[in-house]
Amino acid sequence: MTGLTLCLEQHTGGKVVNSIDAPLWKLPLFVKSGAIIPMTVENNSVQELTGEEPRIFDVYPDGDSSFTLYDDDGYSQAYQNGEGSFTEITSHEQDGTADIIVGKMSGSFEGMKSERETQFIVHTYAKPQSVQATVGGSEAELQEVADRAAFDDAAGNVYYYDEAPANSAYYEGAGTGAPRLYVKIAATDITANEVKLHVEGIVNRVEQEIVDDTLPMAATAPQIAETSSSAITLSFDVPEGMQADLEIDGMLYENVTSPFIHDSLNPDEEHTYRLRYTNTLGSGEFSEQVSAKTDLDPYRNVISGAEATANSYEDIPGDSYPPQNLVDGDLASQWYSNWDDQKYYTEPKIIDIDLQMAYQLDKLEYINDGTSQILDHEILISKDGVHYEQLDASVWEKQYQNDFEFDGRIARYVRIISHDQRFNSGNEIRIYKVDGTDGFSEADCNGDRMLSNDDLTFLKNYMGVDQDNQRLWNQVKEADFSCNGIIDAYDLMFVASRLEGGVRDPKDEVSGMISFTADKTQVKKGDTVTISVNAHDLVNVYALNFELLLDSTKLSSAVCPDNVCTADSPFEAGEFTEGMLDYSKSGETTVDGNDYVRFYGAFSFVGDSGPLQGDGVIATIELKALQDIDDIGMILNDVQVISSGGTIADATWKEDGGEEEPGTKPGEGENPGTGEEETPKPGDDGDTGIQAQQGTLLALFAAAGAAGMIIWRRKARQ
Ligand SMILES: [Ca+2]
Ligand SMILES: [Ca+2]
Ligand SMILES: [Ca+2]
Q: Domain 223-293 belongs to what architecture?
């Protein structure tokens, strides 16, 4: 069995056949050479069949083949008990002589009819020289009849050869099919009698007429006319009177026409092509091989697996438009803001997209096929999902798609705020990463796209660097997870809490206070004075930092040469903060023309350890007096612990250790950081007897430009 038969055409296997004549009314049916196909009479429904109909075997003799026919009652479950019949049909063809043997039917089922007529349809391209049959070993006297009508009228034991049988008994326009031999054997007991057909002079190969006397010339290589991410289009010339065969990736595509579209391909995939010409004599040489690649998938950098939430969405049972529909990759699914809630006609509608990891972002596409596009909007990014940086505030065009370029900024969270005073919707928000990059930990800060102890080293080196330091800020800004313009304890905590196993549980809001106290009130030039940083009523504090700006003409570090502590902390950690990282720094700085020594305290727990709870000494620092100071006049006021968001709006400045003045920030309106001596005010912090006042010693929360201290709550990982 080496071929395929198609009506009048034959094709060898292992290739793709093109340009098949297949109008709407004609289904191309390929039959394997050697096939034995059991048939029955034409019917509209199997209900019409009684089981007494002739059995018909449509046979394409070619070498040896066989088929086992199974039959049963056609409706009950009795077949499960073995109620059914089997008939083996074999075909043996050699050198044009075929023996087709229908064996005795074995088995039984209820209603089985054993007295059956047998018909053969034998496919041969020439009229056989002889047709003989035996039934149960006895020769059946076969009569040749002239036409179909005579064949149909006969009770049995007839045959006729039809050179051009009609393709359809109902539609003349269907034309005629390949020649075939029809044989009818009279009814017999098919359980007792084998039926055997012997045919001589079978021709099972189509002879193609050869009109050419030379083989075609070698073909010219096809041209790559066009590529897309799913198709490659080739163009080529076909000389008149010839057929073009295209070999694609080693597989022959016969009888192709130009342009040829090789489609249903994957993106970024290479394919090879060569062409040859074929005429009736045979095929010419193949052309040179050409290759082409499909285009890259234009959506390959769209970040998948994102989760979207929104403060407003339509959620009617059975008619829901959740924000996740914006990132599901399906242009048909939509997000709708809640059209019944008038609040969102005036208040901003906020869409938050969590990319699940940090990415270097390329662009954003907002797609809306309706009329409710987001127009007046902001785009913000965040690494921690708490602190956001605004990248854009503008008004989009009212159109199907609007784009935004991220310019390679790094983020895990993207926020879109709509300020439209109306209902909004969207089909999809596609967020693309930079080509060739992958997602990584949002806590990476040294740029190696991994979270490791190297990131802690990075923070240790750059702790306290702020955006006023233009030289360094560009190198460190991606480590400013709190988006507040300074590398601080929050940033340290953000990294440290993700190392060594991470945080156990989400934590509640932080609270508490810290204060500074000194061990003496008066010092002579050359004396040392020790300042303590004290914690009061701390709750859930995982990291903290504070800044001391001291008049560098009056005080200096007692332990750091030239006031510069780089490798080690200028502070001595207390028992209370044992186990915390101490990445505190010191150095000299100038503010408004005055020289200061700056001590920047930064403490954080690592992994699961912590938090600080209750009272204790966070750290001490030893200072040396550079001149006589009658009153240290240091700040000894308490500052309420700042909330986890990192704003200082809730800071409370307690004047003179006395009444609290909510909402007043340390140093505000108090001439902070000037180093000017002020008249000491009486005060009492209860611990050291040192009078509390502002002036010489000033605690600054530098990033916000306001004096104060800040204690950061560590945000738990979700
Ligand atoms: Ca969608
Ligand atoms: Ca890293
Ligand atoms: Ca920061």
A: Sandwich (2.60)
